[in-house]
Write a structure and sequence with these properties.
This protein is α+β, with helices and mostly antiparallel strands. Helices cover 26% and strands 25% of the residues. It starts with a helix and ends with a strand.
């Protein structure tokens, strides 16, 4: 009987840390309000077969149609994913932070 009570107490002690870990994991998987989900995008830029070093790569998701480079007042700004190519021409896109990727779209 004492062994059962001691075992129950040890389970209760591990419950709060487990709940914290689960809560953090769930919160990290959610997209903050106003942000589109992004997907990893990697690539390599070559020019005439040679890597293009230091090139700026920009993917732009337009807000419902073609963009002209300027947005009308009050219109949502296009979402841009950017990257710089490395010494081998490779890149990983970033939209919000780190190398998080780019939103799906045209």
């Amino acid at each position: 009987m004492i062994w059962v009570m001691a075992r129950s107490r040890s389970r209760l002690r591990t419950l709060p840390p487990v709940l914290v870990i689960v809560t953090v994991a769930i919160a990290c998987n959610q997209t903050p309000e106003g942000r589109l989900p992004v997907y990893p995008v990697k690539g390599k830029v070559l020019h005439k077969g040679s890597p293009l070093v230091g090139a700026l790569v920009v993917f732009e998701k337009s807000a419902g149609g073609a963009t002209t480079g300027a947005t009308a007042p009050g219109a949502p700004a296009p979402i841009r994913a950017t990257a710089r190519t490395g010494t081998d021409g490779s890149f990983e896109l970033m939209t919000y932070q780190g190398n998080d990727g780019a939103p799906a779209g045209d």
